[in-house]
Amino acid sequence: MDYFFQQLINGLTLGGVYALVALGYTMVYGIIQLINFAHGEIFAAGGYLGVILLSYMASQGLMDSHPWFGLAFALILAMGYCAMLAMAVEKVAYKPLRQSSRLSVLLSALGMSIFLQNGLMLTQGVYDKAYPTEFTHGGFEWLGVRVSYMQIGILAVTALLLVLLNTLVFKTRIGKAMRATAQDKVMSALVGIHSDKVISTTFAIGAALAAAAGIMVGLYYGSVRYDMGFVPGIKAFAAAVLGGIGNITGAMIGGLIIGMVEILAAAYIPAGGEYKDVFAFVILIGVLYFMPTGIMGENVDDTRV
Amino acid sequence: MTRGSRKSWQYFGLGLAWFYLLLWPLLGIRDGELHFAATFAVWLRVAVGATICFVLYRLGKAGRLDGVLHPLAAARDAVGDAMSRAPRWMLLTPVIVFALAYPMLTNRYAQDVAINVLVYICLGLGLNVVVGLCGLLDLGYIAFYGVGAYTYALLSVHYSVPFWVCLPICAVFAAVAGCFIGYPTLRMRGDYLAIVTLGFGEIVRIVINNWMALTGGPNGILGIKSPGIYIPHFVDGSFSFEYLLLRKLEYLYYVILALAAFTIVAVHRINFSRIGRAFEAIREDETAAELMGVDTFRFKLLAYALGAVFGGLAGAFFAARMRFVSPESFTFIESAMVLAMVVLGGMGSIPGVILGALALVALPEAFREFELYRMLAFGGAMAVMMLVRPAGLWPAARMGKRSDDTE
Amino acid sequence: MAAILELEGVCAHYGRIQALRDVSLRVEEGEVVTIIGANGAGKSTTLMTICGIVRATAGEVRYAGESIRDKRPDQLPALGLCQVPEGRRIFPRLTVQENLDMGAFLRRDADEIEADLGMVFRLFPVLHERRKQHGGTLSGGEQQMLAIARALMGRPRMLLLDEPSLGLSPMISQHIFRIIRNVNEERGMTVLLVEQNANMALKLADRAYVMETGAVVMEDDAAALRENADIKKAYLGQ
């Protein structure tokens, strides 16, 4: 039983990270019906920014004196950086194609994904980059379950970001503008919403969440790699589809499910460890086959797709 | 300078500044120190290149380059016109003669590149049936290539079945795999199909990578036999056949040339058959096609299986040629590469796909010293192509807009 | 009186097809003007061109003395030019309340917005009942009311209405037309109305333009047009 709870908490941690990445996919898809392939790379860039900033601060001795402050600082900077990166990608590769066929935009996204991945490789090298680990030690045992402070931190930050996002989308003016633009671009222009700005903002928000996820994955596994964005990217997209693409709550739940299933399957199914990446896809295919609009129902007009 | 041009220069400058900000953290924060010079050097090179392109673009837009561009466009039109008027054999004969004589004219390295190009032509044309003709976006196409390659590898290593016998078997296996993957997925709509096929492609790769007993996992399979032929042999008046393994590159070149020719003819025939029309009807408007009596599900499955067949054939050749297969050859990036050929060349257009394969395989060989930047340039080029020439280098004659593109 | 809206020789194209040919019209401040014509005559395109959703390929569009031809559609509500577009375009998954909030998206005067909200709820009590419901769940007539109410929330100086009676029962259409007249009289709001139901439109309007195949073929006082023999035959079914 202890083992089960241990896996459950690991699954929750991983699922939270998938949920953060999935939100970026689902928001972008909701607003411009694009599978943003470059999103996985944004996530990887977030992880790299984390390692760069934390290493620098560690070398300046800041991490010894104020470790949590340093972490928060790195997190915020990386989120800002990735927001800028995603906005640049959107302006360069997607915005000029707003009137083109969807296949064109999709391929442009694919191209950007390859471009960014190789950009990371060229600037940061092909090998794994290790996160500084001095401050990630420590944890406690509770009812036989080992929980590290890192895990608690990751869960707390994830929960905080999810709540913030929910508030932003459902309670604020910009959130309302985002939802209106997703539902009807012409009409939202007629009430005075500048859709380009809203789309840019959507990309920025999604990217900031992905950046946070990237840092947390880096801290959790201890290192980052230039191609780390690809597989989690697809899994997060699977999570978004699972929850009903365009549906924000759905993406959060879908992420948690995918993370849980992956961890539990690896723990309980023989040879599950080797095949853990397969489970996400199998769930994805199963869900799409039996429930084409996802478990939460889709938030995109059928007429539009 | 007009107001519009000043504004666009402002955006351009802002873009460059933005780019510096994005570049600097990746290059400038290292070893506990902040560096600025290295970033600036890289940035400066990019900025100069971008400025030149931008100036040309602005001049072109303002009509200042008409003196150069108009004659060029006129020349292009004239050539295109002449080509469309000349009988087809006049165009095809030199191409065929050149293709046949190629190994005699070139060295090993060039033959190697040519074989690569031909393999990708087979793959591209196969995917073209699925994406170009039928309009189904398949991001896991390389899985069929893998199925073909592993089918031949296993049959050859364990049962020493000869290549030519395996070829149809590989095609059948790939087709079965295509149906197997297609059956649950083809009811899905465009974007979902893309991501599910991507998922299936990854599943195939992961299974190959982990099924140690059958596939040898990441170590791959060694000792695959080359294709062989029987050559009639006359010695002292007696007549016999001699078995000859086609190990030499020239021979392999002819094998893949034959396969590519077969693929081209087959895809051409499909394209202009009743089936091809059904495919195109599905691509243009699935609902309308269904209302006209096209069994869309069956035809989509057929398109998928047909595409898989060509992938399987190319895979079998790949295994026979390398005499080694491993999961590394069947990653997502290969799928993206093949898709890029189809799209850059021109979806649904056979000469387009051939051109695309040439451009993506042969061109990088010309810039070998920039090997490191190859994929970077590839990704960038893909995005840029979508901006400047979304229909491809050699667009198909019959190509409409997919009905669900319009909002 | 000064013209609040003026079109001069406006042309517009969909791809290679010309949708508007040399359209000129003017609307004075405080007037109700209607454009009538058959399906595909270019009425809706005219409104879309005024709002910048369809780009004019030639000619000039002036609003309150200022050219708006190169403005983006989302810049116009700030100038007091609001549109109720063809097909209503309710945000289906926003609540009625949120739909109305969107109408006042650019306004920052919370008190005044609250007052206007009360005003539209008085005009359309049914919207008040349904304010927590998603827009997509409303009936056609309710959606049309919501669309008009949403436009009113922007406190427009001039309102562009595209086929407000489309698909509605005569009773509901009349109700909506009465409200349009009221708003025009009480608030001095200028109205440009596009309608296929020429009979009702001509009763409501002060002046009218008749469009055929992308061009304006006639303009006159609404009352005079109602008596015009050709119009009677072609559009009023008499």
What does this protein look like?
The complex is a heterotrimer of chains A (305), B (407) and C (238). Chain A is mainly alpha-helical and 305 residues long. Chain A is 73% helix and 4% strand. Chain A is built from 12 helices and 4 strands, in the order H-H-H-H-H-E-E-E-H-H-H-H-E-H-H-H. In chain B, the strands form 3 sheets. In chain B, strands 1-2 form a two-stranded antiparallel ribbon. Chain B has a two-stranded antiparallel ribbon with strand order 3-6. Chain B is globular. Chain C is of the alpha/beta class and 238 residues long. Chain C has helices at residues 43-50, 96-103, 110-123, 125-129, 140-153, 170-187, 198-204, 222-227, 229-234, and strands spanning 3-14, 17-28, 32-37, 56-63, 66-67, 81-84, 158-162, 190-195, 207-212, 215-221. In chain C, the strands form 2 sheets. Chain C has a 6-stranded mixed sheet, with helices on both faces. In chain C, strands 2-1-4-5 form a 4-stranded antiparallel sheet. In chain C, strand 4 (56-63) and strand 5 (66-67) form a beta hairpin. The model of chain C has no long low-confidence stretch (mean pLDDT 90). Chain C is globular and about 45 Å long. Chain C has a domain at 1-73 and 190-238: P-loop containing nucleotide triphosphate hydrolases (Rossmann fold). The chains are: A mainly alpha (305), B mainly alpha (407), C alpha/beta (238).
